């Protein structure tokens, strides 16, 4: 596909001799200011002239084909470029004819490995709405990188190790026969955990017994290990129901426990550097030079820490996957933790290729209208309950508006879960998310249901048309009205949008783009009669509808959303 920005940049580089000139070319937010704009005020210092003079002088020297650049214009230090609508229409439609469902995909990632660590719920604890963000952001990034040709390894780094299991084992020893963990494992284990936690606060000796249990678990004690395995298996069975609803899959379920026999090497390597020092009975790596607290490697009782296991995981992933990037999708509450382990990992003797490409992708918290959720406060919403509630609410809307709809259950599932996912991915991930049913399930706003509704509308048009012409049969001259051209120009941007989303690890860039496409199609639909008596016009407009249909479905799939064929 023709890269118009690159064509402009090459011409500008010839005129200015500035190699990185492409960095000064932007897409104006105001479409009347052209399709691309050279920001000449950024060149003023380097060229020692006013932006207006720079823009005028460059404009006089331009030698661009009118077949590609229809016109240029100098406005207040901006040099604006207007792409010939005929060439952009031809470029987009021909690319669609070639790529169809793979339109927007790329091979930029061929031969490169990306590890993404996401979801990572804690065993024996409720899988609540707070885990939703890591799961859906990570899943979207997984899909996006794969679409760009990368070999992606999705890892669910389960929280299946640590002192909490020492507590759980102690609680089960004391009161296990009082709880039916086979029938309702997570709820019952949570009750045991809360009960033993309260006892630990009252009695320090009980807390010591819990710590000893975890040490026994580390030392492969038969009873503790067998009990831990039982907790893990029951929890995974519960979690899988949620993953099935979200249609999320992983390539590895290696959690913290997987690295229990790999931490000795980490400690040994750190000791050899002379940087592992004793502090108040614990072993730590001092990180004063980075102005961050020390990274604790071993506790006072000799047991390992979350950080030790993460360091072991980095070594294992470097050796096993030879990653080009290792991405961690967790809340911003863990920013300090990742700063500590990323700096400490540089002491493990790994190639800089690995330690320089450890990336933390933080996100904001999910909040209820009443405030932050907390397991201890008991005001959490289980993720499975939330997803089922979303499906139930859509079911009620269907019964009210279209009770005779076929496959109502499946459509309600796709719309309900799609609404939850889209709501999570519509804003920059770093923002806290306020959970609001009324906003989420609105079919008219910038929401998942609106996106799905517009996709269903394109389906309806294609169904009425009965057939889609080949590109050789399309007269692109009939697609030169404003509504058509604005839509085509936005469609042209899809591959760039996907790349931007990967570069910034921001799925919301795709979410916002899809809303733009849907809104521009709505304008096109309202201003142009698609199914009409003029066969030439109908063929062209139907083909454009077909392109939008593919972009909406492909983009939604990248976000982890399934489209209903009817609503």
What layout of secondary structure does this protein have?
Layout (H helix, E strand, L loop, with lengths): L3 H13 L8 E2 L9 E4 L4 H4 L3 H11 L7 E7 L2 E6 L1 H15 L13 E5 L14 H16 L3 E5 L7 H13 L9 H18 L1 H15 L3 H25 L16 H11 L2 E4 L2 E4 L9 E4 L7 H16 L3 E7 L3 H11 L6 H4 L2 E6 L2 E3 L2 E2 L10 H19 L6 H18 L7 E2 L2 H4 L7 H18 L16 H11 L1 H11 L3 H20 L7 H25 L8
Parallel strand pairs: 5-6, 5-10, 10-11, 12-14
Antiparallel strand pairs: 1-2, 2-4, 3-4, 7-8, 8-9, 12-13
Question: Per CATH, what is the topology of the largest domain?
Answer: Rossmann fold
Q: Give the class-level CATH name of the largest domain.
A: Alpha Beta
Find the CATH superfamily of the largest domain: HUPs
Unreliable stretches, pLDDT < 50, 5 or more residues? Answer: none
Q: Please provide the count of β strands.
A: 14
User: How do the strands line up in the largest sheet?
Assistant: 1-2-4-3
SS-based class: alpha/beta
What can be said about the biggest beta sheet? Answer: 4 strands, antiparallel
Named at the architecture level, the CATH assignment of the largest domain is 3-Layer(aba) Sandwich
Helix run count: 21
Commentary on this structure:
- The chain has three domains: about 5-85, 2-Layer Sandwich (Gyrase A, domain 2); about 115-370, HUPs (Rossmann fold, 3-Layer(aba) Sandwich), CATH 3.40.50; about 385-560, Isoleucyl-tRNA Synthetase, Domain 1, CATH 1.10.730.
- The protein is built from 21 helices and 14 strands.
- It has helices at about 5-15, 45, 50-60, 85-100, 130-145, 165-175, 185-200, 205-220, 220-245, 265-275, 305-320, 335-345, 350-355, 385-400, 410-425, 435-440, 450-465, 480-490, 495-505, 510-525, 535-560, and strands at about 25, 35-40, 70-75, 80-85, 115, 150-155, 275-280, 280-285, 295-300, 325-330, 360-365, 365-370, 370, 435.
- A hairpin with a 2-residue loop joins strand 3 (about 70-75) and strand 4.
- The model has no long low-confidence stretch (mean pLDDT about 90).
